[in-house]
Amino acid sequence: MSHASAAPRRYSYLGPAGTFTEAALRQVPEAEGQVWNPVDNLGEALNDVVTGASDAAMIAIENSIDGGVTVAQDALATIPGLRIIGEYLVPVRFVLVARPGTALSDVSVVAGHPVAYAQCRAWLDGAAPTHRHLVATSNVQAAADLFDPTKGVDAAIAPPGIEAHYDVEVLAEGIAENPDAVTRFVLVSRSVPVGDPTGADKTSLMVELPEDRPGALLDLLEQFAARGVNLTLLASRPIGDRMGRYRFVIDAEGHVKDERVADALLGVKRFSPKVSFLGSYPRADRVAATIRDLHDDDTFRDARDWLRGVIEGTRDGEA
Amino acid sequence: MSHASAAPRRYSYLGPAGTFTEAALRQVPEAEGQVWNPVDNLGEALNDVVTGASDAAMIAIENSIDGGVTVAQDALATIPGLRIIGEYLVPVRFVLVARPGTALSDVSVVAGHPVAYAQCRAWLDGAAPTHRHLVATSNVQAAADLFDPTKGVDAAIAPPGIEAHYDVEVLAEGIAENPDAVTRFVLVSRSVPVGDPTGADKTSLMVELPEDRPGALLDLLEQFAARGVNLTLLASRPIGDRMGRYRFVIDAEGHVKDERVADALLGVKRFSPKVSFLGSYPRADRVAATIRDLHDDDTFRDARDWLRGVIEGTRDGEA
Amino acid sequence: MSHASAAPRRYSYLGPAGTFTEAALRQVPEAEGQVWNPVDNLGEALNDVVTGASDAAMIAIENSIDGGVTVAQDALATIPGLRIIGEYLVPVRFVLVARPGTALSDVSVVAGHPVAYAQCRAWLDGAAPTHRHLVATSNVQAAADLFDPTKGVDAAIAPPGIEAHYDVEVLAEGIAENPDAVTRFVLVSRSVPVGDPTGADKTSLMVELPEDRPGALLDLLEQFAARGVNLTLLASRPIGDRMGRYRFVIDAEGHVKDERVADALLGVKRFSPKVSFLGSYPRADRVAATIRDLHDDDTFRDARDWLRGVIEGTRDGEA
Amino acid sequence: MSHASAAPRRYSYLGPAGTFTEAALRQVPEAEGQVWNPVDNLGEALNDVVTGASDAAMIAIENSIDGGVTVAQDALATIPGLRIIGEYLVPVRFVLVARPGTALSDVSVVAGHPVAYAQCRAWLDGAAPTHRHLVATSNVQAAADLFDPTKGVDAAIAPPGIEAHYDVEVLAEGIAENPDAVTRFVLVSRSVPVGDPTGADKTSLMVELPEDRPGALLDLLEQFAARGVNLTLLASRPIGDRMGRYRFVIDAEGHVKDERVADALLGVKRFSPKVSFLGSYPRADRVAATIRDLHDDDTFRDARDWLRGVIEGTRDGEA
User: Fold this and answer.
1) Where would I find the ACT domain in this sequence (chains A, B, C, D) (predicted)?
2) Global confidence as pTM
3) Complete DSSP assignment for chain D
């Protein structure tokens, strides 16, 4: 049977070409040779997925310096029908660029994507203390904004290599605060059957806590700890209805088809008034979870066999 | 419909007629009209069950004053193939009896079952400070021992009403320390399929702890607490191989066919190097367990349905 | 001795007059009649405190919609010598304003403080889908930017009442997503002796977790739970040295001079490689903590008395 | 310097000479050359201490096979004013002895201390299936009972070496079930100031649980676990007022003058409606507790210093 006539797959990402998001998408083997659709912002990217205009969207979810991309976390928490299917890491470096002939001392308005700006702000506060910040929709668009006279931009925060795409000069390199900064991206599709474990997986959830229980967060964390499931991320986001109410963004080591993770999720589901499963997918860093014997799949299956035998009376109850 | 040809069921109990154990057996409706086999000690009673000589044995397992009947706990922990199928409570009161004509001041040797003796000891230490204790095999046998001249017994600790069976005089009544004392009995059979929950059940286990984990008992207890399963008994017994190694005797509220109890048992089984299931059976006091919503059977089933939908991608992961 | 010649106290806040931060400062009775110093950004405000230029600074720390003001959280975590001395809540409402004669359809560039912009973005995406965002340093400055021709601003997100200060027309009211939105502010001074408890207090901490312990966050939370201390905020912020390392921003109910809080802090301090105490201060909402008997001050003192007696042998060890 | 005129110290123990209890007392260097007072039972030994007739009493508290000596545990829980000041281990071996000329087949009545009898019962059930048990007040008294014609004793369970004191023949050696059996003894005095830690200490408590809290035992154990204090013994004993109410017998590693143990005891005291401190004393096995850095004395002191500085404002709150 031939797939010759199959429509190509379509990927939305924060464009244009040259962004870190594009660099993340380049890490996806299945995306090679397919249609890449640059968009202007997160909402557009996720909307493409929801409407079926695209098969998947690559979005930034966390930065090692600036923390969670809260607008992306909130979108995943509130838009139904989405599923994370992959995770990718991209090192983050920045240069300050300007139109040829501009001196650093001339810089008054700096275009930059807000996440990039946060990481370069310390340097900018030193080098251009009176600068103002104009929000750009992407790191590449910041450079493009230099050539839109209506914007009045003097300099732009952009990725290294930007001078290959635009007629700009580099005023300064390495302007981000931390040379080891990295941004974590996730590839998001509509809800699909969960893939198989690779042995180095991650599972993402959004969980609300019951309101009437002191120590509810402790109880939530114990659902994971009791099954030997480590968390790589725990962040709180306001639910938004009033001050002091939060949902928790959780990344757990392991795959929902791992017995210990499934059991932990059952515990979380029984406990939480609202839990969203966002996906189980291979970890970007390929680090396998450390699993003690008492939490491996065989131990879970043995326990179920034992319980069945005990109830049927065919086992005498001895371990 | 006729059961005429069915062999009668046979029950072993600590005899002779008149013991508290017999009083416990009288509480078993199914035992009425069947064969009751009085035996001399716990070992004989359980051996009857193991060999099939009897269908079940009634044994004392705990006293509200003296604590666990450790020899019975140890027997249940070490003899394979046994199952607790019922629980019964018998109020415990004692009289001191003697051959007619004996005065309290004449009493030098007192026959008594060790558990009875422990409860009456304070009174005896006051009334007959120099008495010696001769171990009797049952509370009724203690009275019988008065008429065995080779034993040199002067008085016996016996249940009220004993004078109906033996030619004895009551020297003193109410000699046990606590007027509200009660003994808990269990009916033991060979391993059989577990019966159905009644809504007021108890589940008995023997559990050994992993050796290499500090806080292992805490982890064990959390297996129950995390599922809202209360314990009515937690006792430690030496495993016997060396000082400081214990197994734990556990009675938990609920039935192994209750979802929360089954889930707790799976957790215990995964964690423990050796766990023995001793039975799920109706509680003697008929007190129903208090179950919060998040631990009831429906919540467990809903969580499993949710997880299945999430894995298949037919649910969008929202609660 | 006369205070007549005492220098007035000086308060820095995000200006100019009319900002929500100014509204928060108006809630501070001690600030009345003192010097109020409007500044352009958080860094300037905190710097005034560090250098002694101001006695205190009012800063926004959390919004009920947008979450923690991460730059403020990170500043408090990394700048030594600061102390929170008060907490204030300000309801947050926004209007969209423009120079007289501007129609909504003319709006291309919108000035707004980033937190305000986040709350009004949904409305703007609907009403002006192609708008661009220019970052303003405050909600009032956004309106002022309308009159700076170098900025090319068409409309501004501003607080209600702004038309009293600037020659603007209101294009739309109530443009924030949630009508109940509120922003939480804290008043920050240099380190000073902690004040006395009021019975409705809050204690703020920044805590790093030990790296070598799975379940470390669980252990941290148990330090509070074991003393009956509820948390009103738990947020994670990247430490910044590498992906996956977080510090935790914690607000706990109660005052460091409450015994249970002091004991919890001792536990946290023993456990954490780095903990910063940011202050104990009256809660803005004046809600008193619910304290069970076993966590009140008397219980703590009684236990210490008992332990002393036990060690000295003057108490027999009975409770 | 001379102590010539000091009154000798007086030690009560379960006599007569030759018992395991005497062997335990021989391990006490301070008891050498003092007055040793053999008594008939536990009650008498403890009464000597309470009345001041003796300075201390040596009592058996646990056996590696038979478990806790419950009557001793209950006595320590209910008699006020006692303090454990030392712990000793004695290996337990037994021989069966009789008057010269007696054959094993002649044995009908066997004298034995109940704890000894429990350990030899399996052997006796095999070698003399129809034997009866006469309770002896000590292992040595069992041999003496052979020569009291009023008792009708045929054989006695006694310690090896008994033939040096009585004219008996050994019918069988090594009749106890476990060749590694050991009994743990404690030396008990009136309440005295607690001694200093040796680095390998144990602390004994009796603790009742609050009635109104599910999971109360878990909370109790967490008081120890949270401070890194391991338990070497946890046993439950009925309080005696009704079925299902227990107090807990606890031996914890460490000394009440160790910071982590003191802090755990404060936690227990705040939580429990009734806690009895029974003493901190050197462990018989001289095994030092394993203490992690976060639970050592310096860590506790550092935390207190930090908290004081934080409250006074002389430390900026940084760790």
Assistant:
1) 205-282
2) 0.87
3) ---TTSPPPEEEEE-STTSHHHHHHTT-GGGTTSEEEEESSHHHHHHHHHHTSSSEEEEEEEETTTEE-HHHHHHHHHSTTEEEEEEEEEE---EEEESTT--GGG--EEEE-HHHHHHHHHHHHHHSTT-EEEE-SSHHHHHHGGG-GGG---EEEE-TTGGGTSS-EEEEE--SS-TT-EEEEEEEEE--------SSEEEEEEEEPPTT-TTHHHHHHHHHHTTT--EEEEEEEE-SSSTT-EEEEEEEES-TTSHHHHHHHHHHHHH-SEEEEEEEEE-TT-PPPP--GGGSHHHHHHHHHHHHHHHHTSS-S--
